[in-house]
Write a structure and sequence with these properties.
Layout: H1 2-14, H2 38-42, E1 51-58, E2 61-67, H3 73-89, E3 117-120
Antiparallel strand pairs: 1-2, 1-3
Helix pairs in contact: 1-3
InterPro entries: DUF3531 (IPR021920)
Length: 122
């Protein structure tokens, strides 16, 4: 489930779906039928996901490297919302950490599936 969540998040982000500069419908009232201005949408500054690495798992830890460029806050909120729901409905996530390359329990030299390590392409 985690791998599919990160894949979906990456696709939506790559397509510019988390651009907080273009929030036409969420910022409008619904007193009448919603109206989306495609020209306005096309003229906002693009905000896209740049790159994502492999999804790595060691025992009960997981990590993934991402390059989200200018750090679009809506992109991170979208991921956190999805992971919060997964944590609530399926498995309890103890901690979510952003940034940095070191995590106290992560073993950089562990590369064997027999030792509890696996890597998955996003």
């Amino acid at each position: 489930m985690f791998l599919q969540t990160f894949r979906s998040w990456h696709i939506v982000g790559r397509l510019g779906g988390c651009n907080s500069m273009n929030m036409q419908l969420s910022q409008s009232t619904f007193e009448k039928r919603p109206n989306y201005d495609a020209i306005q949408g096309a003229n906002v500054t693009p905000s896209t996901f740049y790159n994502i690495g492999d999804f790595e798992i060691q025992d009960n830890l997981a990590r993934v490297w991402v390059d989200i460029g200018t750090t679009e806050p809506l992109l991170l909120d979208t991921l956190i919302n999805a992971l919060t729901q997964i944590s609530s409905d399926y498995v309890g996530i103890k901690q979510l950490v952003f940034g940095g390359s070191e995590f106290e329990n992560w073993k950089e030299n562990l590369t064997s599936e027999y030792a509890g390590y696996s890597v998955h392409k996003i």
